[in-house]
Amino acid sequence: MIDLGQDRPHSARMYDYYLGGKTNYAVDREAAEAVIEQFPAILTVARINRAFMHRSARFLAAERGIRQFLDIGTGIPTEPNLHEVAQSVEPRCKVAYVDTDPIVLAYADSLLTSSPEGETTYLEGNVTEPEDVIAAVKEDGCLSFEEPIALTLHALLHFVTDEQDAYGIVERLLAELPSGSYLSLSHCTGDFAPRPWQAIVDLYTEKGTPVQVRSHEEVLRFFSGLDLVEPGLAVAHRWQPRPASGPSLVNDADASLYAAVAMKRS
C-alpha cells in the first residue's frame, strides 16, 4: 500500500491547493492557508509557474523542434500536463516524468495518456540522486540520449538546498544530455518581497520541507555555460508572454518567480 503521508503536509498537495485542485487533505490546506496568510500572492505565483511551463513547452516543441522532454519533480497531474502541451504542437513528442513523491505515483495514470504517435512514461526518482535518475530513464527507453532532450525543472530547485548541492545536481543532469538539449527552469525568489518569503521558508521548513529561495544571480548560476533564450532570466510572467497565457498584469513582488530557457551547445 502506498503511504500518502496524510498525517503531514506535502509540498505537492499544497501546490495543488494553490492551483485550486482537489488532490489535497486537511493537513495540506491548513499549511497552505498559513502560507497564504503570510503572502496571499502565492496563489498567483503558482498560476504564473504553471503558465510558464505551458509557454516554455510550446516554445521548445514549436520553435526549437524539441521532441523529447525529461520532467523532474512533476507534481500532481494538472491538465493540461506537459505532454499534452507538447503533443498539441507535435503528436510525436515523448515525455518522461520523474518524481519521488508517493502522491504523484498514486495519480500517475493521468500522465500516461499519450497521443498514439508519441509516448509518455512515469519513473520514480529523486532529483538529489541525478545519476540514479538518468540511469532509470535510460533503462526505461522512452527517451533517446542520441537526440536533444529538454530537461524541465519547474518550481523544484527551491526545494533543493545548497547543502544538497543544487548546482552540482543540475550540472550532472545536463552532462548526460547531448548538445542541442535545453534546460527549462523556474525558481521562487525573495528578491522583491523578502519578509513574507522568509516567513514562507520558515513555515515549510517547520513542516519538514526545507526551502531555499534564491536571488537573480543565484538562479542565473544554474544556467552557467548555456545559451539563454530571449529574454534571458526574467520574472516568469515576463518570459515570452502571450495573450491569455496566464497572469500578466501583476507586479514582480506578486510573481516572485524567476524563469528561463537555455540551450546546451556542447
How many strand segments?
8
Beta-strand share of residues? 15-25%
Low-pLDDT runs: none
Mean pLDDT: 94
- The radius of gyration computed from the alpha-carbon positions, rounded to a whole number of angstroms, is 17 Å
Characterize the main sheet: 8 strands, mixed
> Which structural class best describes the helix and strand composition?
alpha/beta
Tell me the number of helical segments per DSSP (H or I, 4 or more residues long). 10
* Overall helicity: 25-40%
Shape: globular
The topology string of helices and strands comes to HHHEHEHEHEHEHHEEHE
The separation of the N and C termini measures 44 Å
Give the arrangement of secondary structure elements.
Elements: H1 11-18, H2 26-38, H3 42-62, E1 68-72, H4 82-89, E2 94-99, H5 102-106, E3 119-124, H6 130-140, E4 150-154, H7 166-175, E5 182-188, H8 194-206, H9 216-220, E6 227-228, E7 234-235, H10 252-255, E8 257-263
Parallel strand pairs: 1-2, 1-4, 2-3, 4-5
Antiparallel strand pairs: 5-8, 6-8, 7-8
Helix pairs in contact: 1-2, 2-8, 3-4
